Amino acid sequence: MLKKTSLVITLLFISLFAFSQTEIYGAWDVHCGVESSGLKTTKTCALCPVSSSDTAVKIKGFTLQVDSAHLQFGNAKDKISYVRRPSGKAISFVKDRQPYSFDIVATTSPDYVILRSNDGTLLILQRRLESEESAATEE
Fold it and tell me: Which of 88, 74, 70, 69 is nearest to 30 (CA)?
């Protein structure tokens, strides 16, 4: 009985470790979390495209492709190397000479992952469907 219990626990840990290593691989639509800290003040991740006028602020999302060693933002040709912490639950990279570090927060759905920066801003990743991926590469 003890051997079976040990085996089940070991397999559970292995599967959780494997999931944590691959949960962000693939194509994603990235939605930007916005925090209102006052009547005229908002805070969002610096990766999010922001445009503003006298009367409005528009924050857009973007697409992201993640493989085992690189990130690719939108339709950019350049790939950016990233590093995962040994725990597999955080990534760090440099984009446009700006360092970024995010904790990877899993959700109850395999189609969503949250990236939380050190300053508390959020990126919500929504897994792209295969049909969306092929349409994006045709553009």
Answer: 74
